[in-house]
Write a structure and sequence with these properties.
By secondary structure, the protein is of the alpha+beta class. The protein is about 35% helix and about 15% strand. A seven-stranded mixed β-sheet has the order 2-4-1-5-3-6-7, sandwiched between helices. A hairpin with a 2-residue loop joins strand 6 and strand 7. Helix 3 runs antiparallel to helix 7.
């Protein structure tokens, strides 16, 4: 963990007491110089007419909790939504010989029964994804980022502070192959048992690659504290499910063992 700095050190850098106190409110402890610099750079470039905390609370990553779903591209509504069984075949196709499916194989591996959350906005968009290119044979316009670079920095800062406070076991961005492949990379050799929100297309939720979304894994004992901190930070989250011994289930459907998704990779 990087060294934290106190107000006297921050003041020597030209940071006001009000700004420093607001940083304490945002991350819940004294910041490191990198965290302080990130937040202040965001504020300096975009919102200095307001207080730091007030500006952050007004950004588009602070959407109301009933507005966390994006509608997705209207053109995609004409594409038939696959059933959960078909999503298993899609997952196998995406993972077969995929160079991006390189597991972390955390040592020691995560325990079973850990809680899995996705932090950030849930999206029904799946343009410009590996799924769209490989399985639907579509080449769409590059998607508008749901989360800007500053949003991502903010989420990473909050999750990093929660991990430092031992509320989180680990966190990781959703990347190539979407949520499904990111979960495989993140927690293999463990498996996962997750549910998909009914408001979102199965394929978009599992395989869409819209940026600004992060996976978080935590023990059940930290669930209430984790949700409270996300509420204070004005960040949305979606409960996914739990880690399993070595199998994958989506909406109760068995997608098979984790090792199946790695065994056909090119060496």
């Amino acid at each position: 963990m990087k060294a934290e700095i106190d107000f006297e050190q921050a003041e020597s850098l030209g940071i006001s007491r009000q700004a420093f106190d607001e940083v304490l409110d945002i991350i819940g402890r004294q910041p490191s110089i990198d965290e302080l610099s990130t937040l202040l750079a965001m504020w300096e470039s975009n919102g200095k007419q307001q207080s730091l905390y007030g500006w952050l609370r007004g950004q588009h990553h602070t959407v109301h909790r009933d507005e966390y779903l994006y509608s997705g591209n209207a053109d995609h509504k004409a594409i038939r939504e696959p059933k959960v069984k078909e999503c298993q075949s899609i997952a196998e196709e995406l993972c077969h010989n995929s160079s991006f499916l390189i597991p972390h194989f955390t040592l020691p591996s995560f325990p079973t029964g850990m809680l899995l959350y996705m932090v950030g906005n849930v999206s029904s968009e799946f343009a410009d994804s590996e799924y769209a290119r490989r399985c639907l044979h579509l080449v769409g316009e590059p998607m508008a980022a749901a989360g800007s670079e500053e949003d991502c920095q903010y989420i990473e800062l909050i999750l990093g502070s929660l991990q430092s406070a031992a509320m989180l076991e680990a966190s990781h961005g959703v990347g190539e192959g979407g949520l499904y492949c990111s979960l495989l990379r993140f927690i293999a050799p463990r498996g996962f048992d997750i549910l998909v929100p009914r408001e979102v297309r199965l394929d978009a939720f599992l395989f869409g690659e819209e940026p600004g979304r992060y996976l978080a894994i935590l023990p059940e004992s930290q669930d209430d504290a984790f949700l409270l901190k996300l509420t204070e930070a004005q960040l949305n989250c979606c409960f996914l499910g739990r880690t399993t011994q070595d199998r994958i289930l989506v909406d109760g459907y068995d997608f098979g063992p984790v090792k199946k998704y790695f065994q056909n990779q090119r060496k």
